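Recall the central idea of this unit: under ordinary conditions, the amino acid sequence of a chain determines the structure it adopts. In this exercise we apply that idea directly, starting from the sequence alone.
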Amino acid sequence: MKEDGHSMVRHIIFDLGQVLIRVAFLEFAQRFAELFDTDAQLILNADDKGPHRKFFVGQISSEEFHREICALFKKDVSLEEFKELWLSMLGGEIPESVAIVKRLAQEKKSLSILSNIDAWHYNYCEENYPVMQFFQKKFLSFALRMRKPNPEIFKLVARELQAKPDECLLIDDMRENIESAQKVGYRTIHFVNANDLHNKLADMNLIVG
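Accordingly, the structure predicted from this sequence is:
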């Protein structure tokens, strides 16, 4: 069976942050700046390097991450206080997106997560956000030792799902991730909001109503 010249979508792969779970980064940056006596704008404008990058791809432990951040900002903050701050970045489920996931699960769709995420954030999501239970597979940057938009991560996910790339649909809010997945052969939906997502899934005959 074909859809618009492609193989039928067999696997729907969701990003987490800003798709299913809110990321309160501005509030986090302000709290971080207060705790570490630094400028919030430096946090907001930080490039994709440094201890957080290594933490997200599992190159350092949570304890090492804490020590490196304290050393970088020359401030002694307890591990417990720092972890609480780091977890405050997560702002709760996005109800409209969760409703879509529940609908897809009811329709017996194969659902996976592909997320750039660290171990602290992932464990918190599992413990606090019921939406996590609807996913059969979870592909996590800290466990895979690589992250989006590296095309190799999309190839790995397709292999693990025993699927062709064009049998995989990626739903992600980051344009660079969408473009990288498309180059590998994925079908994609650039997430803007839940209503737009629902309409696009309906257009692809992946959700009823």
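The domain at 25-88 is CATH 1.10.150.240 (DNA polymerase; domain 1).
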